[in-house]
Write a structure and sequence with these properties.
Blueprint (H helix, E strand, L loop, with lengths): L2 H16 L5 H16 L3 H5 L2 H5 L4 H8 L5 H13 L13 E4 L9 E4 L1 H16 L14 E4 L7 E2 L4 E3 L1 H7 L9 E2 L1 H5 L4 H11 L5 E6 L1 H14 L14 E5 L4 H8 L7 E8 L2 E5 L8 E3 L5 E7 L28 E8 L6 E11 L4 E7 L13 H15 L3 E11 L2 E10 L5 H15 L1 H7 L3 E10 H11 L14 H12 L1
Parallel strand pairs: 1-5, 3-6, 3-7, 7-8, 8-9, 17-18
Antiparallel strand pairs: 1-2, 4-5, 9-10, 10-11, 11-15, 12-13, 13-14, 14-15, 16-17
Helix pairs in contact: 10-11, 13-14, 14-15
Length: about 500
Amino acid sequence: MSVIGELIKKAIDVYGLVTSEPDPVNAQQAVLKNLLTRARLTAFGKAYNFTAILNSENVVAAFQEAVPVHDYDKLYNDWWHYLLDGHQNVTWPGGQRYFALSSGTTSNSKSIPVTDDMLDSIRRSGIEQITSLKNFDLPADFFDKQIMMLGSSTNLIEKDDHEEGEISGISAANLPTWFRTLYKPGIEIASLSNWDEKVRRIAQEAPKWDIGSLSGIPSWIELMLKEVIAYNRLDTIHDIWPNLQVYTSGGVAFEPYRKSLETLLARPLQYIDTYLTSEGYLATQKRPDTSAMALMVDNGIFFEFVPFTPENMDENGQVKAAAKVLTLADVEENVDYVLLISTVSGTWRYMIGDTVMITDKQRSEIRITGRTKHFLNVVGEQLSVFQMNEAMQSLEKHFDVEIKEYVVSAIHKNGEFINKWIIGANRTVDESQLATSLDEILCQANKNYKVARSRSLKGVEAEVVPVEKIYSWSETYKKLGGQAKIPRVMKEADFLDFQRYVQE
């Protein structure tokens, strides 16, 4: 047994004994007061009179009444563009050394400020994730194995007074010195911006490493593992990394990728979900008997929740000004909410673009259920990405197929609307039978969809393509690897362009 690993494991256990989980509601109130206090003399804090809010009897209510809900465009146009010009004390005290470039599913042009306080918050969340490993049944020698973190390039773009890159690259570039001996693929390979070159170098160096855990977006982790297996002529990844035991997923729901990922393994891993975004490290899975993630309620992020209903959302997926906004004290379990955050990076009542469901209010645990702009509701379908993912898993079992990616849109056909699905799979399937089964599954799962099928939604079609075509599209029009995600829902014009690409 590893002496170092045993010491680390004991240290984590002891840390867990001397610390306790905070009360979520009290912790969140303290976080908001701290945010307002620290930012009260910024331009934003003066504009919305944070000092008066702090002196009010109900700080949360006063904050919600005074400060409007923001999306990225509103914050950028009103405030953040000053930061990129070099101004300081705009939405958070001081200036910014980093800006996170978003490569998510709704935009490729976001520049999110990343303050030193946010980097500290991300580090503390990482430590909290590590200490929660005491809840998982892991042997002592796991704790001295290496960690493969597959993210964006750490070779950041230098500007006059700051650097830019994706949040995974910024975080990796700021890893503490003591951690770098465990971190793979190492700074040199991680700095490569070309995805194919990065994966090729990983495959070449893989025999030298003793990897105990993986971290990254599922689709790109899978592509990397395939390259390592093929290059080294292996049957499974455990042939070269026998001590691999944990996979920390993030960015998207993991379950749609589980079946295909496990074909590359000799045995299943311990899967742990995390919620790291360009705007901060929001949540992590802390116990093995659930896939839900606990919000980081005492670490520089204040959470708010808008019921995800047609009454609260406009046609562009934005929260309406009159929408009722709740805090953790008032939310209900098993209800879809639009997530708002205020953070130590100077985001204020910021609509991050995700929808979440509270699964355990006492533990402040959530699941990501979709994206506000990837909610399919053109003709009343009211389908969330969560429901779509569950439907794909049912199709995998019924047709014995691996579904890696999918994209859907409501498009016109013969003057009427249909739902057209393009599904990336590992083999061909009878498309007519697949579409029929998918339609039946969704009718059973969603009463609004069932009503739409009897009225305005006149048909369902499915086209099955090799998943490599979808990844090729991503490489051509978005980006391959890193934090890049495949959109689940597209508007009709974008979808038709996408369809032409994969058909060619």
